[in-house]
Amino acid sequence: MNGSRLIGLGIMVLSLIFFVIGYAYVRTAEHALLAGHEVGLNGECVHPEGVVCPYAKLNELAVPKYVGLFTDLVFFALGVFLFFKKTPEEKTATKTKRTAQKLSGEEKKVFDLISQSNGLIYQHELVEKLAISKVKITRLLDSLEAKGIVERRRRGMTNVVILKPAS
Length: 167
Known about the structure:
- With 167 residues, the chain is mainly alpha-helical.
- The chain has helices at residues 3-34, 54-84, 88-101, 105-116, 123-130, 134-146; strands at 38-39, 45-46, 120-122, 150-155, 158-163.
- It has 6 helices and 5 strands, in the order αββαααβααββ.
- α1 runs antiparallel to α2 (54-84).
- The protein is rod-shaped.
- The protein has 2 domains: 3-84; 88-163, Winged helix-like DNA-binding domain superfamily/Winged helix DNA-binding domain (Arc Repressor Mutant, subunit A).
C-alpha cells in the first residue's frame, strides 16, 4: 500500500471515530436537556417560570451538531479520495496495458521491449534485440509514432525511442 492510500485509510478511520464520539455526545446532551421535561395536553412545554425551554437549548446545539457532521463527512470524503487516487505510475501502467492490447504482433514486441527498458531505448538496440532489419524497425516505429505511442529523437548517429507519457 502506498503512502496516500495509508493516509486516506487513516483519515477515514479517524473520521468514523469522530462520528461515533460526536453522535454519542449529542445523544447524551439531548437526553440530559430533556430529562424531566413535560409536555402538556395540547403539546405545549410545561416548565417552571424563568426556566429556559429545553427545546430552545436543543436549537442552540443544532448548528454545531450539523457543522460537525458536515466537517466529518468532508474529511471522510477526503480519505476516500486519497485511498482510491491512482499514482502516476499506476496511470502509466494502465495506459500501457490499454495501448499494448491495440497493437499488432510485431508492434507489440517493439512496445514491450521499450516498456521493459523504462520507456527509453536506442533504435539500434531494437534491431539487435528483436533480430529484425533496420528497415522493418523503422516502419514499425513510424507506425507507433503515427499512433502517438512513441517519439524518436536524434542522438548522434542513431535515434532514441521514447514512450510518450500518459495523457
